[in-house]
Write a structure and sequence with these properties.
Elements (H helix, E strand, L loop, with lengths): L8 H10 L1 E5 L5 E4 L6 H10 L4 E4 L11 H17 L3 E8 L8 E7 L3 H10 L4 E5 L6 E4 L8
Antiparallel strand pairs: 1-2, 1-4, 3-5, 3-6, 4-5, 6-7
Length: about 150
Amino acid sequence: MIRLMDRSLAACADAYVRAHYVVALPCGGEAAMRLGRPCPALSDIMAARGAATACFLTAWNPRSQPRSEAENQADQTRLKARIEALGLSWLGAEGRDPDGGWDAEPSLVALGLSFQQACDLGDAFGQNAILFAGPDAAMRLVFCLLGKAEA
């Protein structure tokens, strides 16, 4: 999503805050998810599926380093399988740069993950950040790898 090498930590955080996050609706179309604001469409889906949480995440471009589409798609498939193995459902989603500086990243919204499971998946797939919502369906930015030293 965002190249950390090219940006300060503050600029990186700003890029995540400015990004556009959308979720594909089961009935067609999409709904915008704005950080810190409830998303009524997502709230309705969560209620219908009995989910108290939702998490927006991706497996694309770990540590904000561009990779081939094949590598990204393979990891995205693994991410979906991990969520399904937990017995949870997901919706298609996408993260978009409002300035067009980076390509939209296929993502997903997992329903029913605990906060710890969401953070663990973000870490497992090398993501700098995830978005997490509780019952209010308001996505909040959670940093995973930013500030962690390379091993």
